[in-house]
From TrEMBL:
Record key words, sorted: Cell cycle, Cell division, GTP-binding, Magnesium, Metal-binding, Nucleotide-binding, Septation
Native organism: Ruminococcus albus SY3
Lineage of source species: Bacteria, Bacillati, Bacillota, Clostridia, Eubacteriales
Domain spans labelled EngB-type G: 22-195
Cofactors demanded by this protein: Mg(2+)
Gene Ontology CC annotation, any one: cytosol
Segments forming a coiled coil: none
Family per record: Belongs to the TRAFAC class TrmE-Era-EngA-EngB-Septin-like GTPase superfamily. EngB GTPase family.
The protein's name: Probable GTP-binding protein EngB
Function: Necessary for normal cell division and for the maintenance of normal septation.
Part of the intact protein present: 1 to 195 of 233
Amino acid sequence: MNFNKAEFITSYGKLSQIPESDRPEFAFSGRSNVGKSSLINKIFNRKNMARVSSVPGKTVTINFFSVEDVYFVDLPGYGYANVSKGEKKGWGDLIGGYLADFDRDLELVFQLIDMRHAPSKDDIQMINYLIDNEIPFVIVLTKADKLKPTARKERMEAFKDEIPYFEDIHCIPFSAVTGEGVDDLKAIIEEIRED
Ligand code: GTP
Ligand code: MG
C-alpha cells in the first residue's frame, strides 16, 4: 500500500451525515491531544493533512481519509474538560454512534494512550467497550519520545495494573517526533489488507 498517496475525503460533524460503509476502515481513537492527527500525518508522511494543534479539542468532526481502497477515520478526541455539555454530547454521539454501527467494515481501531500518564476513565471505558463488542483493536502508546528509558519501563509496568488485559493486547510504542513505531503500524495495516 502506498501510504504517500493518501487523500483527505471529508469531515462529518453529525452522525447522520456519515455515509454507509463501502470500504474497509481503520479508525483512530483517543483523548483530545493524545496525538491522533499527528500519528495519521506520520503514517501518510505528510506535514499537516490531518490538522494538528496545540489547542486540545481541535478535531471536533469525524474526518475520513483514503489510501487506495481503504478509509482512515480520525475520530474526535474525547475527554477534553473545557467544553460545554452540548459539545461533549455531540462528540460522544459521534464517536459512540460510529463505533456502534456494526454494519461498517471496521477492520481495526487504533486506541491511542499517552505513554506518560495513567489512562483516564474515558480511556478505560473505551477499551472495555472495544473488548465487550469484540471490535478488533491495538493500543498505541503515544509521545514515547518524551520518556527516558527508566520512566518508560515504569509506565509499561504500571499499564499492566491500569489497563484491563494489558498483557493480551497488542501494544505499539509510538512517537510522531522520532518515527518510532510507524513501520509497525503500517505493517499491521498491510497485513489486514492482504487477508
Ligand atoms: P484532538 O484533535 O484535539 O483530538 O488531538 P489529537 O489527538 O489529534 O492530537 P494532535 O495530533 O493534534 O497532537 C496534540 C499535540 O501533541 C500537538 O502539539 C502535537 O505536536 C503533540 N504531539 C503529538 N504526537 C507527539 C509525539 O509523538 N511526541 C511529541 N513530543 N509531541 C507530540
Ligand atoms: Mg486531531
